[in-house]
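Fold it.
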Amino acid sequence: MADYHAHSNYSDGRFLWSMARAADAAGFEALGFADHCTVSDREGPRRTRARMGYNLDRTYERRREAIDAFGERFDLSLYDAVEMDYDPRDEAEIGAFLADADFDYAVGSVHYLDGVNVHFESHFAAKSEAERRDLVARYVDRLVALVDSGLFDVAAHPDLLERNPAFRGLLSHDDYVRVAEAFRDSPTVPEINAGRALDDYGDVHPTGEFLDVLLDHDVSLTLGTDSHAPDELEPRAQELMRVADEYGIDPVRVV
């Protein structure tokens, strides 16, 4: 198992060493730390950054030292990565940061619509269906822009909207095809993400229908548990491997 999407205390996860130790004990071949990072100079992202403490752009060198040190203690490969919040308006800042930081790989994510995290159910549930459908269209536009940007090696949880009941079921087959065509023509690889597969959401990203469309377009996929705690790593990895076996997917290596 190579997991390219885990978090540590350098964003919203547990101590880096405890995550590495759990992955090693579970027999992982590799674990990639893709901690959250926001580099936008716009007011909304700056407030989110201050509130959430996503300061990897200031601490990545310190984390890199720790990863290098732990690499000698555990029998697995540890990767130095990042999960960047993406907005097309921030491409210049993101590109400059990634070029300077030189991570092993970069993960891109669309987490926000209208400055609000897409998980925030009550905010979006209060909107009309027409408004929610418009937001879904904007989410798809932003996801395609992420893929087309060429900034990222991996696109995280490409149908993240599905976690929110206010959006669930609003992504259409045509939306899936549009995104799959973008991935087909891009070096950016979508991940199968198990972040909520074993709890309230109860499914991986992408959903089964979306996975079918991606595979029909010959899109390669990789694996990410999206774990934030040591005890999440092994069960989520097992679920990812179950899905990969069910769909006949041979996950690609990112590095």
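The first strand starts at residue 2 and ends at 6.
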